[in-house]
## 1
Amino acid sequence: MAPPKDALSTAPLLDSKVAPTVLQTHAQFFDRNGDGLIYPRDTYSAMRDVGFNPVFALFAVLFIHMSFSMASNPNWTPDLSFKIRIDRLHRGVHGSDTRSISHEGEFDEARFEKIFSDYTPAPHDSISFKELRRMMSGNRNAYDFFGMAATLFEWGTAFLMVWPENGRLTKEEVMGIVDGSIFQKLADKQKAIKEKLQQKESKKLGKEGDGIDTD
């Protein structure tokens, strides 16, 4: 996949000579079979993989697909499958955000750095949720209710997903969310935790079985 020609164009899916945009790499974890389409079931599966419970995963599916399916749809008629097209995901870039992602889905490093330089104390390498709330207020566009809701959902989900022990998201963690590189790491971490719990449960059941009196 490659960047679109402009903000109104569809990105070429099969152009392997050009690197994908950051927005496209962000979405690839949710594209479970690599066909460039994200269905609600894909989002639910991905949200569960990174550690969210079924209730929040379902809420995320409803918010994400109700919001961005139509935005990525090339037609005016609604898509009743509510799928999201990665090649047109840039059409869902909304207002009241950090503007780190352009309307073509490209990454703007200068705008990304302003998140930390403008709203966090030195050394500007992490951000708290209180600082994020101030940043969201600073980026708010007049009467942009959807953009404000989407921004709150995105940053709130980021905090819940990473759940930093010291209450601060690092710049590296935020960048990992923006480009999607953190998702597989979190999924692998959750898988390891589940396997460890299963091993403990198996050992516990084995010990209980050894203690059963068969006489």
Note: The chain has eight helices and four strands.
## 2
Amino acid sequence: MVNPGKRMHILQEMLAIRHGPGAAILPPEITRIHMDFAKKWNNGHLGPRRFWKDCLPRLKFWNPAVPMLVNRTEDQSAPAKMSIYFRQAALDANKPSALMSKMNSLPLAQQPHSSTENECPAPPPEEGERVVTIDMKDVRSDVILDEFMAKTGATKVEPTPDEQAELAAIERRRQRAAADRAIMKKYLEDRKEEDRMLAMARQEAEAIKLANQ
């Protein structure tokens, strides 16, 4: 049987991936998403990194069938760009696209994949696709998300009433834990100061004792 603390931690993790920035359902015409940015945060790449860390996992959770690749580079002067690929409106969303047919014919090692060595930059659109880009360099992650939502037409996922209650309870527990940590920190600091003062008093007493001998 899972203990209550562990069960609550699992629930908190589930709610964190289900709701928050990036929790959205993409329209069926989106075929894939590609992000290109540098490995480190400086030179304008902090916003893209935060979007990747905070928003992309939720997008993937709600849209597991949409490939989402991240290509990073050592070059901090490189652009930071998101490419969103759309299926042409005239094509049937239920039929395999030229992209998927092509990918399925390739060996696994040759298929597009995320990379930390700039191995898979954003490709040109395939037949039956169009691409829309977002310039992410020097842009905050929340602004990137707003532009992403506008350009994709994604639908934000709202928590159910039960989930809202759980989220509120988690926030209350978080605040209580923060308050408890602050109290404990002050207690330990006070104890440390008392120990320091006591040590000083003992040293002074020992010095006086030696002086009177």
Note: The two ends are 69 Å apart (CA to CA).
